[in-house]
Amino acid sequence: MPNHFTPHAAGDLNYLKSLNRSTILSTVRRYPGLSRADIALRTGLTKATVGSVVNALSDSGWLREGELHARGGGRPGRSLYLDGEHHVMLGAEVGVKGLRVVACNLQGELLASQRLDDSPTTPAQTAAVLARLIEALRGDPAIATRPCLGLGVALPGPVAPQAPILRLAPNLGWVDVDFLALLRAELDWPAGVWLLDNEANAAAFGEFYFIEGAPPESIAYLSAGSGIGCGVVSGEHFPVIPRGHQGLVGEIGHTVLVAEGARCHCGNHGCAETLVSGWMLRESLGVEADASLSASLLARLDEPEVRAALARAGRALGLLMLNLHHTLNPSMLILGGSLMRLGEPLVAPALAYFDAHQNDLLRQTQRVPVKVVEDSTFTAARGAAAQVMARAAIEV
Amino acid sequence: MPNHFTPHAAGDLNYLKSLNRSTILSTVRRYPGLSRADIALRTGLTKATVGSVVNALSDSGWLREGELHARGGGRPGRSLYLDGEHHVMLGAEVGVKGLRVVACNLQGELLASQRLDDSPTTPAQTAAVLARLIEALRGDPAIATRPCLGLGVALPGPVAPQAPILRLAPNLGWVDVDFLALLRAELDWPAGVWLLDNEANAAAFGEFYFIEGAPPESIAYLSAGSGIGCGVVSGEHFPVIPRGHQGLVGEIGHTVLVAEGARCHCGNHGCAETLVSGWMLRESLGVEADASLSASLLARLDEPEVRAALARAGRALGLLMLNLHHTLNPSMLILGGSLMRLGEPLVAPALAYFDAHQNDLLRQTQRVPVKVVEDSTFTAARGAAAQVMARAAIEV
DNA sequence: AGAGTTAGTAAATAGTATTAACTAATGGCG
DNA sequence: CGCCATTAGTTAATACTATTTACTAACTCT
């Protein structure tokens, strides 16, 4: 079933070709420096197939050949790498506290970026401002001359799985917005792939996509900012984000942790966000609405009240991490989002709680690794760019 | 990445053939009575391809041709159906309270079944007893002459995603059991596909696989018995069960609903199973360990204490259902497991709680349908058989 | 320098779905 | 009744895929 996330539904020889091309490209992404022969061994394709596909990908600027490397006797193989000098992908994030735009090469390296720390207003105005940022980025001499694979946009709310439309962004007050259409109206642009996704999903995708070597079975990116979201990704060569019926997979901020607990802005009571989230800390600690939360709180870390509040929130975060393991069961957990800037006072209690409450099932196996991303300013935007690359690799 | 759930990893022409054959088979399963031309239209394959594949499937006993049906002018098409008269699949369930074995035809109809209501003891003894049941079933004249596609076994605990091995069945006291190997030792059998899976996953798969017409995007089967488990399935033609790193996707019985709550047998505190589960009701209401829980309680429904306990458990179940929607977000929810026999005193509070606590995001869209399976005696076994069929359809 | 080994390419081959042309079967209409 | 238009299904030719096989290229070791 083709939709805007998974373009085609199999069947003909084109599909097979595309599948193999994409597999080969992905093998080089995961294992840079492999030779044609190595790729053939790894993918199960024959030398001949790999050779012809690799040569075509070299010609079109996706791969470049590197140095020779001999292994034992015999003719040395020629190392292959993703070509970081040709194509670029653009990624953008509309966050509660500002706009971010990045340009990446095929290796996931940031070539240029733009940011604007004003809170977005209406969808249309935001699209106009974002379009100017994107144009500024495209004007950058480092990327102006390069062919662009497309643009991915990350938004702070669930996106409909059937159409690229934002359903609801509670922290922006947006409902059912066709943001790509608004952007298209502002950007007169030939362009290839246009994608829209949830911020946590995009971030998760990017973190997973550019992992070198054999990736974990799956990762969950827990995004703690104004709200709490979570994106899951799995699939070595073709990373997939489970989305569910309404795109709510990973909306763990609104799982209920306290039956009949404090009222949440979602209309329910006792949600995780009432225990840990930017807006909850803002309300309970009395930070002015337009001030940067993390900056304000970082300045007040010597107040016992603040430290206690962060520790409480941290323990709730640890509990969320535990529940995540029994429902989505990722093999790696990444903590990101603006709250991570608060550092140890929030993170240490979370990790401690997580460690202390492993049950027998989890204790039986190796502890799931947790990675903390302190500065996730461009993580979601870069992830959106990664999604563009993944799509383009299939369609090319 | 091939593993014991997803056999092959794409690449060659065989794969393409297998993919299309399986797609066509699945189209007939979802939409019985279509003609070759209808299938071509639906799948995007050409008439020629569909024709040759359908004829091959007819020859091998997977499809049968039915009546002609004219639509407007022109030559009438010949209806196609899965052939219920040839192949059979076997499915088995090892439950806390007994063994179940079924034989199904390709349409998911139960041709024969066997049950034994003794609690299993050791893995080896259980395998021996189960083997006798299976042999008895194979001896049944209704199925003895038919070709058998294989055997699927459902167990009450998580199964390792990389190998068909049971990790842990707390309610049986089993750890790291290679149950298929034990069975193979008891059953001298040529046989095709052998599969092992978690009980909730198997049940979910079966419920989803045999849905006629366009299926929901995904379903979650919430299995409430001695413990609480949940299986998720999605994918119209190729249903997939997300499993996660350790096969714990859907282990929602051990999500924590009460921080620092009552001690759970998993080693943690405040798990969902401490609020709703067979073993918790058994303990709190003082039912003897070897008596049938539902029977004992059904006889005591006039006691206010029992009704109150069931209502409390029901509300916890409703809360679990809500949290499920914000993490796995299925488009349909099926309630099954032995506790469902308790009926309205448990189910009504659950549904009421679920209805009353929908948040804005869920309220925005159509209410997710909930289906209650009162008698799920053979649901998991039949689901295991369905998994055999799905696998065989790819491999044939 | 030559044998042995591995990398990569080229031409021939087998297998896939598609295309285009055909036959088959029905309803509608004169 | 007979003809035509229409749709279903089959067949043979075609285009494209990956594989097989045979080859050339390039290096190490002796």
UniProtKB/TrEMBL annotation, chains A, B:
InterPro entries: ATPase_NBD, HTH_MarR-typ, ROK, WH-like_DNA-bd_sf, WH_DNA-bd_sf
Domain of life: Bacteria
HTH marR-type domain segment(s): 22-71
Gene3D superfamilies linked: 3.30.420.40, Winged helix-like DNA-binding domain superfamily/Winged helix DNA-binding domain (1.10.10.10)
Pfam families named in the record: MarR_2, ROK
Protein name according to UniProt: ROK family transcriptional regulator
Species assigned in the record: Salinicola endophyticus
